[in-house]
Hints:
0% strand
Amino acid sequence: MDNTYRASIWLFFATALYFVMNGAQLWETALMVPAWTAAPPESLFFFKGPHGLDFKYFWMIVHSVHDLVLILAIAFNWRLRKRRNIMLMLFAVHIAMRVWTLTYFAPTLMSFMALDVQPGTDVALLEKATTWKLLNYLRVAIYVMVNFGYTVLLIRAVKPREE
């Protein structure tokens, strides 16, 4: 197995895991986020009780596995200068999104999850939830664009070259 082939395999795995991550993000953004942000604190019941939703461990595992595979893909593609440079650029955007997630999205969501469910809507909480939701749309769109970048790179890597 030559190095270019091995590099392409790792690029495939990283890109495929990005699709898994994007699918989960899109599902959560389309279904869960509009529900819990609709009318806090009343709408925060999704997070409460013995069957309340808590995606924390899911996202920790998905991001950890994906980041590890992505780093391995970059390592295996290191000698392929053009591919490496594009992968590093996309990885920089990916890391920026991870930092934003860990410094804003996760802590803000955890603060909502810690609130008690009460009847009615608190205007300040609704504004905070709406801001979170709108910024999340942007964040997910950026993640999807990064995934698209890796997909284009993968297609170019496996596309037969004309002589």
